[in-house]
Design brief:
The protein is an alpha+beta fold and 123 residues long. It has one domain: Heat Shock Protein 90. It is 45% helix and 22% strand.
């Protein structure tokens, strides 16, 4: 799958804002409604903030697939050590459990669960 992407190195909070702006620009050009753009802005902000807080930085990639130009891809990558005990991380009180409780945003955009959204809101 070929992508047109914007890669943002996230090393400080201004980089998080840049990633959010790039995602908003791409979504506006694709015709996503304001509510969906707002949801994605929250997800990109959370991802970038988590990169800084938990991994000391990383990268956010915002892209459009040439095979599906109406879909948006957001990928956050870090070089952190990972989660030692994933079961414990999903219990109440942990940051991962908090993220997982934010449905449907987390369902659509978090972890390895990959879904496509279109400007009409279809998945």
């Amino acid at each position: 799958m070929e992508l047109t992407v914007a890669l943002v190195e996230v090393q400080d909070p201004t980089d998080v804002a840049e990633a959010r702006r790039r995602a908003a620009d791409v979504m506006e050009r694709l015709g996503f409604d304001e509510a969906t753009r707002g949801e994605v802005a929250i997800v990109v902000t959370e991802a970038g903030t988590n990169l800084l807080k938990h991994a000391g930085g990383g990268q956010i990639i915002v892209g459009v697939s040439h095979g599906n130009p109406s879909g948006l891809h957001v990928v956050a990558m870090d070089r952190g050590s990972g989660i030692a005990n994933t079961s414990a991380s999903m219990r109440d009180g942990s940051s991962a459990a908090s993220i997982a409780s934010r449905r449907p945003r987390a369902d659509i955009f978090a972890g390895s669960d990959t879904r496509s959204i279109s400007p009409s809101g279809a998945m």
